[in-house]
Write a structure and sequence with these properties.
It is a single chain. By secondary structure, this protein is mainly α. The chain has nine helices and no strands. Helix 1 packs parallel to helix 4, helix 4 packs antiparallel against helix 6 and helix 7 crosses helix 8.
């Protein structure tokens, strides 16, 4: 049953997002074609238009993915379709696990499409080497390869967006415990939860600064910090976001198991 719930949730979300996926890749290909045509004023303008469309669609993928997942959660759990959802022979914890797993998979697919679109539109051997030459001194100073550092940065961004998604779920769960203005309270508590999560990240980053004056420079000065400190911040941020997502999952599941007041 969990597999069927997950399949239905993914189909509901990805069927809509597939339109943006196709359009993004289409304009990425056009961008690749037109930006490589030289000595043509018209083609240069078309290339810039395609570039703008590609970037705009990339942002639309993230925004629509996030709002569709929140809408799916509210509609299937608290809206008109919630009566069918809650009559299924499945535990409440499994319902929330399905929604969260669908969010992880959907966001992961979106990231793959975005990375591939950027690769199609802008990758060139010379451009990649130039970027490597510029950034390698920074990454080498913290003993990270260019590919490894890029992967960590993408992972941090992925976990940050996943944390934001889950905070939205928290807001929906708490907001629908009220009798009136449920959507308004959902937005309010989702925002509060997100701000609390960011405060937790800052506290986790600030704790080492108490014991290390060099680390404290990150918060109160503009002095250059050592590569070891930068590397530590990157690793700590990744671990902190991962733990925050896991903690948020168990908190939401516990809140969800306390009961659901459908509209």
């Amino acid at each position: 049953m969990l597999g069927k719930l997950l399949k239905y949730d993914l189909k509901w979300n990805l069927k809509f997002l597939s339109i943006f996926y196709i359009l993004t890749l289409f304009f990425a290909i056009l961008t690749r074609i037109f930006i490589n045509i030289e000595n043509s004023f018209f083609m240069d303008i078309v290339g810039k238009i395609c570039t703008g469309a590609t970037i705009s669609l990339i942002f639309n993928i993230i925004v629509n993915n996030t709002f569709r997942l929140w809408a799916n959660f509210r509609q299937k759990v608290y809206g008109d379709e919630s009566y069918l959802t809650h009559t299924l022979p499945v535990k409440k914890s499994s319902i929330y696990f399905s929604k969260m797993l669908a969010a992880v998979i959907s966001l992961f697919i979106s990231f793959l499409v975005i990375i591939f679109a950027l690769f199609v539109a802008y990758y060139s051997k010379d451009g990649f080497e130039s970027l490597r030459v510029i950034l390698n001194p920074i990454f080498n100073s913290i003993k990270l390869s260019f590919t490894g550092a890029l992967a960590i940065l993408i992972l941090v961004l992925f976990l940050e967006l996943l944390n934001m998604l889950q905070c939205g779920f928290t807001g929906v769960i708490i907001g629908h415990r009220f009798n009136n203005a449920k959507i308004g309270f959902s937005v309010l508590f989702g925002f509060i939860t997100y701000m609390i999560s960011q405060a937790i990240i800052l506290v986790l980053l600030f704790i080492p600064a108490i014991f290390n004056s060099n680390f404290m420079n990150l918060f109160f000065t503009t002095d250059t910090v050592s590569p070891e400190i930068i590397k530590f911040v990157i690793i700590l941020s990744t671990i902190s976001y991962l733990l925050l997502v896991i903690l948020g999952f168990f908190i939401n599941k516990k809140l969800f198991n306390k009961g659901v007041n459908v509209d």
